[in-house]
Design goal:
Strand content: under 5%
Number of domains: 1
Number of strands: 0
Helix content: over 70%
Number of helices: 20
Shape: globular
């Protein structure tokens, strides 16, 4: 039985055929991605996503890290350890849900089933609300236990524990903004999320400047002001996202009925999100282990690694959106039953993604010392961090391919194999190799950097072999 129309919805809308209810997509934000030039379609999706990556991964990250660095190296280390370890676990769960949402919506759009796309979007938001409550409870009740999991230096606790508690209490903002981007991205609209992000990051930078340092007569919250400032931007973005989705200003138009819990659909999202989240948590587990190993060499090594991790995230944050755009193209092509187009989309995605990522990696390699000098005046921290960025730049040669490989598989609905590869690589290759090189050789911290590089090579090779086998296309054709 179809649901009764809500106030403001016409009875004829519920009875009308899909074609009359939802006009054919057209224009920049509503392009039909199942037809036409793949290069043009990729650019339509990727350019706004690249701009989002530059804005969030470069501009905002640099402002945020610069503000926090003025509070001292202990503040930087405490913030990065929180954000790159325990917070990453919750973030990976949310990203798993967002990848699942994008995959389901893109295939529904490719199959010209907009009602299913809208229903999946509503159920994803309902799951996000529940997850936000759970994360807030865990972080609010056990902040010190969570912070200690990464084995940070004792001097980092006084700053890190209050910061972690606040980050978890305000994690609803991350959930809302990620799901909003996934919903519209799956439908083929990456421009609207970009416009919302421009507002979000502008508000966040201004709020951090005010709340960290006590400008404009506000209290100076220090490191906690960074968390509060980010939350201010996310709250504004969430309000704009709700307006876009519920007022019919996007291809996906949500109504209240879409939020009513539908356990089978929620279960479908979770079944897809679970492997994706576990895949990324495998990477977080590796970071956990390596931060602990870095801590055995003293505060300077752990600080250098923390800064290097944050800087190293800028390149993927700028480039990864291209892989996400490729996932949408693959998903919509699979939904439309056009497997050859899915293959061509992967090829185009590899060329564009690798070209841009390799260029950024080269810049980071050549100017690594100068970049590190912006965030630390300790020569030893700069020396150690510079060595780490050499290995990190080399890893990007392989990750430029890996990101497109695994996101394309996910776009087609293949989540289990990428998860198995990543977990096996992290738990049976990278972490044991890092421990061996640190404890059984004289390499020192370099053993950690080598293990990370080997991990990138193994993950890329294994995922590429599975992608090239084509078995995922046969599975997708019968899903």
């Amino acid at each position: 039985m179809s649901p009764s129309p809500e106030p403001g919805e016409r009875e004829t809308d519920e009875a009308a055929p899909p074609a009359s209810r939802h006009p054919a997509p057209s224009g920049w934000r509503h392009r039909d991605l199942t037809q036409g030039s793949l290069v043009s379609s990729l650019l339509v999706l990727a350019l706004p996503l690249i701009a989002s990556g530059v804005l969030g991964g470069a501009v905002f990250q640099i402002f945020d890290l610069t503000f926090v660095s003025r509070l001292g190296e202990e503040a930087i280390a405490a913030v990065v350890i929180t954000n790159q370890t325990v917070r990453q676990v919750s973030l990976m769960i949310v990203m798993g849900a967002s990848f699942a949402t994008q995959s389901l919506i893109s295939r529904a759009i490719g199959n010209d089933d907009l009602e299913r796309a809208e229903h999946v979007a509503g159920q994803s938001i309902s799951l996000g609300i529940g997850l936000g409550i759970l994360v807030a409870l865990v972080g609010g009740l056990f902040p010190e236990t969570l912070f200690s999991l990464a084995g940070p230096n004792e001097s980092f606790y006084a700053t890190g524990v209050p910061y972690l508690r606040l980050v978890f209490l305000l994690h609803f903002g991350v959930i809302g903004t990620l799901l909003f981007g996934a919903i519209l991205g799956g439908a083929g609209d990456t421009t609207t999320p970009l416009l919302v992000q421009v507002v979000q990051f502008s508000v966040a930078i201004a709020a951090e400047w005010v709340l960290i340092f006590g400008n404009l007569g506000a209290p100076a919250f220090g490191v906690q002001g960074a968390a509060l400032g980010i939350a201010c931007g996310q709250l504004v973005a969430m309000c704009l996202g709700v307006a876009v989705l519920f007022r019919g200003h996007s291809r996906v138009h949500l109504r209240r009925r879409h939020l009513v819990p539908d356990l089978p659909v929620m279960g479908e999202i979770l079944r897809i999100a679970g492997p994706s989240a576990l895949q990324m948590i495998g990477g977080v587990a590796m970071t956990f282990a390596f931060i602990r190993l870095a801590g055995t060499f003293g505060e300077q090594v752990q600080t250098a690694y923390a800064i290097g991790l944050r800087l190293g995230m800028i390149v993927p944050m700028v480039c990864f959106p291209i892989a996400t755009a490729c996932a949408t193209l693959v998903g919509q092509a699979i939904g439309a039953g056009d497997v050859p187009r899915a293959w061509r989309a992967i090829g185009v995605g590899i060329v564009v993604h690798a070209g841009i990522m390799w260029s950024f990696a080269a810049g980071m390699f050549w100017f690594r010392v100068q970049i590190l000098g912006f965030f630390s005046d300790d020569p030893e921290v700069i020396r150690i961090g510079s060595e780490y960025l050499v290995y990190s730049s080399a890893a990007f040669i392989f990750l430029a391919l890996y990101f497109v490989f695994f996101r394309s598989l996910q776009g087609a609905g293949e989540f289990l194999v990428p998860m198995a590869i990543t977990l096996t690589n992290s738990l049976l290759v990278a972490i044991p190799l890092g421990i061996f090189l640190v404890r059984a050789t004289s390499l020192g911290p370099s053993g950690i950097w080598i293990a990370q590089l080997v991990s990138a090579i193994v993950a890329t090779t294994a995922t590429g072999i599975w992608l090239a086998s084509g078995r995922w296309t046969r599975r997708a054709a019968h899903s």
